[in-house]
Each structure stands twice: as C-alpha cells, then as structure tokens.
Sequence to fold (105 residues):
Amino acid sequence: MCGIAGIISLQACAEPHLPRRLALMNRLQRHRGPDGEARDFVRDIFSSRGALDRGMVDNRKALAALDGEQPFGRKIWGLLCLEIWQQAFHDRAHEFRNLSKEVAA
Fold:
C-alpha cells in the first residue's frame, strides 16, 4: 500500500497506541474535520482558562467559528496547533525555568 491510503491506514493502526490527545489530533486530520469526541477535544482546548485569557488570539472567536468550520478547515487547525503549543510550552515556562536552575545548581 502506498500514497495517502497507506498513510491513513498506518495512522489508523497507530491510534490505539497513542496518548489520547495525540490520537484525537490524528483523528482530526484523518477524518478531515472535528466531529464527535474530536470536536469535544477541540472545544476543551479553546475553552480552557489559559486559552480564553490569551491576548494574542481571541479563542472565543475560534469557538464560535468551530460550528461553521468546513471539513478540515485550515484556520481552526492552525489555531488548535498554536493553542496546544502555548499550553505545552508558554503556560509551563516557569517549570522550565525552575528546571534549568536545578540543573545549573
């Protein structure tokens, strides 16, 4: 199997072995848009306190646009990736600073 069909098949086989968050993002790509559990995942990401308090992006607008988003809309996908990055790194910056202090000591 080759091409996109092979990639989609491989992703589907790997999904049960991935962390839930990664599996849902994989499903978003494979099914070409947020629906069901994946839609709930996207809503949870955009409606978190950190996401709603960001000055750089108005995630309330992203939440409002979610219902009108075309399948696999690039706008929502881009904002989702940005918000997950913000949660993973920006929101935890203090942890990384403390870690670097511990390593230096």
Remarks:
- The chain has seven helices and no strands.
- Residues 3-104 form one domain.
- The mean pLDDT is 76.
- The two ends are 53 Å apart (CA to CA).
